[in-house]
Structures are given as C-alpha cells and as structure tokens.
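Technical note accompanying the year-one report. For the benefit of new consortium partners, we illustrate the data format agreed upon in the data management plan: each record pairs a sequence with a structure-token string. No post-processing was applied to the example shown here.
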Amino acid sequence: MMKALIWNKSKIELTEREYPALQDSRDAIVKVKLSSICTSDLHIIKGFVPNAKEGTVLGHEFVGEIVELGDGVKNLKVGDRVSANCETFCGECYFCRHGFINNCEKGGWKLGCSIDGCQAEYVRVPFADCGLTKIPDNVTYENALFVGDILSSGYFGVELCELKAGETLAVIGAGPVGLCSMACAKLFSPSKIIAIDTDKFRLDLAKRLGLADYTLNPAECDIEKEVKSLTQTRGADKVIDAGGGKCIGLDGGTTGLAFSKSIDYATQTGSFEMAWRIARPNAIIALVAMYEEDQILPLPKMYGKNLIFKTGGVDAVHCRELLNLISEGKLNTDFLITHKFPLEDILEAYNTFENKSDNCLKIAVTY
C-alpha cells in the first residue's frame, strides 16, 4: 500500500491506496519525486470540473523516476528521470498529429481528474512514450517541476498571442502562469512587458526578476489609461489573461489576480473585460486562465477594434524544448517554489496554496 491524496465530493483526504499497475503496453509506473498543487486541483474540489471522477488521486504536475515500463515504450527506460506532461495524449489521432494534444481523441486532461494522478508515492502514466520527457542530466527535479504544466501554459499563452519582437505584451495576473508567460515572452524580444495585478509581492517579484518592465496595480491606477500612456495611446499589441474572472481571489477564484472589492474599477472590471479594453485595435488576446463562470462578449462595445481572441486548455507540445532552454540557462522557474511540504502534510499544503499564505506562489510536495 502507498499514501495518496484522494478527492471525494468537496473533501480531500490522505489515505492508503494500492500500488498502480501497468494496464497497457504504453504505460509507465513512475516513482514520484516532487509534485505540485495546481489551481485546477482546487477547481476539482469545488466542483467546477464536470469530467472529474470522485475517488480519484489528485494531481497532474510532477517529476519522478521510471520504475516500470510497458513493452510498447521504446524511447524511455527504467531509471530515467522524467518530467510529466499534464495532458494524456496518444500522438496518433488527428488532433495529436496537428499539435492539439489537449483534444486528443483518447486522452486530454486525465491525470488527477478522471484517472489517478500524482499526489501519491507512485503513479501510472498512460501513453508514457508521449507524456513523459527525459530530464537532461544538468537539470534537477526542482528545475523541471513545472515544465509539463504551468511553464507550458505560459509558453502556450505567448504562442497564442503570436508575439513578435518589438511588440508590447500586457499580462493580466502575476501568479505562476502569468509569471511563466512573462519569462517565456522574454525569449521573443518584446519591446516591453506590462504586468498587472493587485498583489504587491508578485508585482515586485516580476520587476525584480526582470520579467516585467512595468507593473500596474488596478487598486492604485486606471489600468486602461496607464497602458495607453505606455503605448503611444494605442494599447497593448498582445494581451495574455492569466487572471480568470471578477474579484479574483476573494471567493476562492482562479490564478493570479486578487481584485479588491473596495476599488470600483476592480469590482466592475474583471480580467476578461480588462483584457479587451487595454488591447489596441487588431490585437490578439490569449485567454489561458481557467474561468469558473461564463464571461460576456460585449460585441457592440468592442465593435471596430477588430480583436482576435484565442483560448483553450494548454497544448503542452514543447516540453523537450523547454527542458533544453532550462538546461541552457535561458529559462528558470525555481523562484516559483516558495514552500515545501512532505506528502504527510499535503492537507496543510493545500490550505497554504489556496489561501496564498505567506506569499505562496507554488508548493513542492516531497516524497
């Protein structure tokens, strides 16, 4: 038996679970070395994920060592250190062949949602030849922890934006995904990156690490006015919404932003509306946050801006490239790990992460 974090209705509990076993020739069994808690895990607990299956081991963000392999996996071997993709994908269907792995006909977001995930001592990974990437020798488990999920999500946002050198990028939400978006955006040489959040610690971190050139707090200024002043009145060329809602953070909302109820602009303007308001005409807006409620597309108000909206679950198809960039010293996400907890204390870890206690960004759960 092994320890595992199980989700049942609105409760989570650390309990005993049978060790996973191979079920298919393309499976792998991975001994988890580090895992992390994702906002998506909180969405499951709160009932916002229809496909989530009760009784499932939570978690999809992890690194570990392969201890058993199906005979159909030819590109990996027992003993390999690997980073896991948050998506389960076959690599063969129409969507996989076109790079849309989030829509794999045989997969999608499975781990920690509809099949047992990684917040356990061992995890079974289907289609391991696609979903596991060998970690370079000079990259530690900590270095690689976020490659298959939030770093890929950040890169996905930049990719959706079609960011080009010399353009201005505004990132709404300086949480983990927003910060990863900024880090990845730097690879494309934008003229300036504008970070927007109400959390002073996160904004200061973005500025100190050189991820953002300008930081704006909607509790302190008129965001639309400030963005226009930084862009010769045009607005941002590209916008990434990594916030995900209205009054975020006050009611257990999504990643990044934490608008204040005392500020009229913040309460009346959620991240979605802010995104299209600060975008210049003909801009691209990438919505990478996972919203908890429907958003309104006010076509009459935005008529004439000719905006392009792109959204969806991450297609994490660049894991190998991201690991190579980390290996080469061009990307680093170590700063995201603000707290560490052993698996035995994972309930406390969830509480810390959900409440953003002690300026928590991301948690590394150790095994």
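Partners are asked to follow this layout when depositing records. The chain has 13 helices and 16 strands.
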